[in-house]
């Protein structure tokens, strides 16, 4: 009996650090398993939001029906969101040619300044209370790749440049 306890203890001493290392290298998976990250899940229909673009024009996702597009949900004071700006700048041509929109929680004027400072060619839509409710926003940034039928085919919580660039490759296929 004592021998079995020793083996179990040895097994636990080996497996716990391995699980910990895996969890630290895969925080997105761990977060999805243990936390309610909110938002729209893969396979679900994405809400056809409409709102005011920060430069004053109206914007409706419905106008992109039948096309693939990417929605980035951001918050103006989010450091991770701000860390995406250089990547968005480098991919300006792709984001302009294909359909990309940033839905921003925060002051509209602050987003207008961000758009001007970075020369973003894509719409930035102010996330009013209704949009925030429709999108069930909890995590920033979150990227959604939406298919031609309006369903989420890929979701990226947080920002990983490699995964984001793969998402843009998928966007171009549509």
Q: What do these coordinates show?
A:
The chain is of the alpha/beta class and 174 residues long. The protein folds into two domains: 2-34; 50-173, Glutaredoxin, CATH 3.40.30.10. The protein is 46% helix and 20% strand. The protein contains eight helices and seven strands, in the order ααβββαααβαβαββα. The strands form two sheets. The chain has a five-stranded mixed sheet with strand order 5-4-3-6-7. A two-stranded antiparallel sheet has the order 1-2. The longest helix is centred in the N-terminal third of the chain and has 24 residues, at 2-25. It is elongated.
Looking at this protein, list some descriptive labels.
single chain; 174 residues; alpha/beta; Glutaredoxin; 2 domains; five-stranded mixed sheet; two-stranded antiparallel sheet; 8 helices; 7 strands; elongated; transmembrane; membrane; transmembrane helix
